[in-house]
TrEMBL record:
Protein name: ARFP2 protein
SUPFAM superfamilies: BAR/IMD domain-like
Entry keywords, A to Z: Coiled coil, Golgi apparatus, Membrane, Phosphoprotein
Protein location: Golgi apparatus membrane; Golgi apparatus, trans-Golgi network
Keyword match Phosphoprotein: yes
PROSITE patterns according to UniProt: AH (PS50870)
InterPro entries: AH/BAR_dom_sf (IPR027267), AH_dom (IPR010504), Arfaptin_fam (IPR030798)
PANTHER family (UniProt xref): ARFAPTIN-2 (PTHR12141:SF3), ARFAPTIN-RELATED (PTHR12141)
Length: 344
């Protein structure tokens, strides 16, 4: 039976010491958050279907209520009142079964979680995969910092460009009203207008950089981390039902125990398959995410470097060439919305 229960090719059980101090576990102050995650995944009693599994359960094993209703409505020689009572009774039994399954599953998972945190249980750990997951979380935090700083740079530089634009207009106005300083005000106005134009070009490049980093962090990485959360939930369920099966295996072997043992073996196998599937999904997503991250950041860092360098070197031609190289089109004023003819 031990061969059927455990798959040690890629995972192993790490027993937790008496004080619960291990390097791979989260901090103890996250216990409350984990318990909340267990409890908030309760059943929706407005749904009229019986769902197997409860804590983070999927839609597998659904028995449509239509089968109950249909059987009640097509009973031979059944009065309308009796048929209505049968439907109500079927829905009540269905919802009770949902709550029962969710309660059992939540109890097992909560017991396993507390047992792990207080050093009285063991958890299944894929060391290589969990190292990659922790690295992803750390990378996401650092990229969020870069994104925040890039947005701050964009806001400050936008204010600078607006100030240069206003200053250029003021110089141009004074150039017309001050004949004795017309030339001096004139070339200062032209300089500010040129700086403003180059600044708007640089803003286009920086905005494109910010948009790409935002997509990478808040969509691509977040999507992978959602799968990671599903994997961690499946891991907790797997360990909970594994522990339950081990406890039953060490108990007495009477007729009742053997029946419960068979049921526990079936549930354990189901959660094991779910855990291994999600583990494979996470590994694939992490691989593709790393490849996509390198490709995106290679392009964006080159864009950022070339645009910043060209702007501060005063090379307007190189700055415009950088935008063309990365297919960045600047929005002209008043061109945000197409005309009514273009919309037809």
């Amino acid at each position: 039976m031990s061969d059927g229960m455990m798959s040690k090719a890629a995972t192993m059980e790490i027993p937790i010491s008496s004080n619960g101090d291990t390097g791979s576990l989260p901090e103890d102050d996250s216990l409350e958050q984990d318990l909340q995650q267990v409890m908030v995944s309760g059943p929706n009693l407005n749904e009229t279907s019986i769902v197997s599994g409860g804590y983070g359960g999927t839609a597998e094993g659904i028995i449509p209520t239509g089968a109950i209703k249909g059987s009640a409505l097509h009973q031979p020689h059944a009065s309308p009142a009796a048929g209505g009572e049968e439907i109500v009774r079927g829905i009540a039994v269905e919802k009770f079964d949902i709550v029962k399954k969710w309660g059992i599953n939540t109890y097992k998972c909560t017991k396993q979680l507390i047992s792990e945190r207080f050093g009285r249980g063991s958890r299944t750990v894929d060391l290589e995969l969990e190292t990659q997951i922790e690295l992803l979380r750390e990378t996401k935090r650092k990229y969020e910092c870069v994104l925040q700083l890039a947005r701050a740079l964009t806001n400050h530089f936008y204010s600078l460009v607006q100030t240069q634009h206003a200053l250029g207009d003021a110089f141009a106005d004074l150039s017309q009203k001050s004949p004795e300083l017309q030339e001096e005000f004139g070339y200062n106005a032209e300089t500010q207008k040129l700086l403003c134009k180059n600044g708007e070009t640089l803003l286009g490049a920086v905005n494109f950089f910010v948009s790409s980093i935002n997509t990478l962090v808040n969509k691509t990485m977040e999507d992978t981390l959602m799968t990671v959360k599903q994997y961690e939930t499946a891991r907790l369920e797997y360990d909970a039902y594994r522990t339950d099966l081990e406890e039953l295996s060490m108990g007495p072997r009477d007729a009742g125990t053997l029946c419960r043992l068979d049921a526990a073996q079936s549930q354990f196998q189901s959660h094991k398959d779910k855990y291994e599937k999600l583990r494979a999904d996470v590994a694939i997503k992490l691989k593709f995410l790393e490849e996509n991250k390198i490709k995106v950041m290679h392009k964006q860092l080159l864009l950022f470097h070339n645009a910043i360098s060209a702007y501060f070197a005063g090379n307007q031609q190189q700055l415009e060439q950088t935008l063309k190289q990365f297919n960045i089109k600047l929005k002209t004023p008043g061109a945000e919305k197409p005309s009514w003819l273009e919309e037809q």
